[in-house]
Amino acid sequence: MFNSISSQASKLINLTKPKNNISKTKVITITSGKGGVGKSTFTANIAYLLAKRGFKVVVIDADIGLANLQVLFDLKPKLTLFDYIEGRNSISEVVSNTAYSNLSLIAGKSGYQYANLNNSLVLSRIVHDIKDYNNYDIVLIDTGAGLNEYVQEFLSVSDNILALTTTDPSALTDVYALMKLLSIDKKSLLLCFNHTRSYQIGETISKSLVNLAKKNLLNPNFMVKYIGNVSTSANISTTSRLRKLFVHEFQHDQITKELQKVIDTLLNDLK
Ligand SMILES: Nc1ncnc2c1ncn2[C@@H]1O[C@H](COP(=O)(O)OP(=O)(O)OP(=O)(O)O)[C@@H](O)[C@H]1O
């Protein structure tokens, strides 16, 4: 079954091959380790701010089995990432336009059984293909929580990895586990703190994590770059419940300014 899916898929992929090998598309994978730290909310909001700055942005909901970005964007897409992965549809067909200009979504599918495809590097192929497609400036990939094989698959093909964490000890333990994993064959990790009132607190904890990595002799060439903090606001949950984006509704709020600052740093560091 997989072979037929795969050959169907490669036909579709060939249709989307670029005319040259130079892709303008930057891929940023957003991950967290611990669940519930605010990753999807953060991804949707920075996607909007990046699109507002004029970048053509597509978000991929790669949280296998728990698709919630479509809720945040208030969409009910007919086609999902898995229609592409399973070879039925092309990239352009599985992309849904959001209500916001320059901003699209490749939706996930709740309850999807990845075991259907039971073959490594099937999912992350979309990363290569979307770069080849060369139609977007920025691709944001929202992975599931944890460090399971699907998350690792996306991390392995990403040039830019951003970890969102909180100051909660269990979230920090998970981020350190992520640092250990990435330090083996990646050059860097961008680190952002959610639910963190002060920029300095995030900075201090980032330095402690880097010191711990030194003490434990993690690869010295592996860099952890702190890119900023996001405070807590009840309005974030409220806007999400209303299927709206916080940064769109509260354009001059302190949290929107914090997110803009995160983006400034992020854009400076993009590979
Ligand atoms: N800075 C914040 N202030 C207040 N509430 C927030 C903030 N960030 C996220 N939230 C809320 O926290 C909850 C969890 O957020 P979200 O679903 O984005 O987390 P997640 O990390 O993607 O979760 P999962 O691990 O399930 O994928 C949501 O109700 C969201 O509205």
Give the secondary structure arrangement, pairings included.
Blueprint (H helix, E strand, L loop, with lengths): L1 H14 L10 E6 L7 H14 L4 E6 L6 H4 L8 H5 L5 H4 E3 L5 E4 L18 H9 L4 E6 L5 H8 L3 E6 L3 H17 L2 E6 L5 H17 L7 E7 L4 H8 L4 H4 L4 H16 L2
Parallel strand pairs: 1-5, 1-6, 2-4, 2-5, 6-7, 7-8
Antiparallel strand pairs: 3-4
This protein binds adenosine-5'-triphosphate.
Describe this structure in words.
Helix content is 44%, strand content 16%. With 271 residues, the protein is an alpha/beta fold. The protein has one domain: 3-Layer(aba) Sandwich (Rossmann fold), CATH 3.40.50.300. The protein has an 8-stranded mixed sheet, with helices on both faces. Strand 6 (160-165), helix 8 and strand 7 (188-193) form a beta-alpha-beta unit. The N and C termini lie far apart (37 Å). Mean pLDDT is 90; it is low at 1-19. It binds adenosine-5'-triphosphate. The site of adenosine-5'-triphosphate has 20 residues, from helix 2 and helix 10.
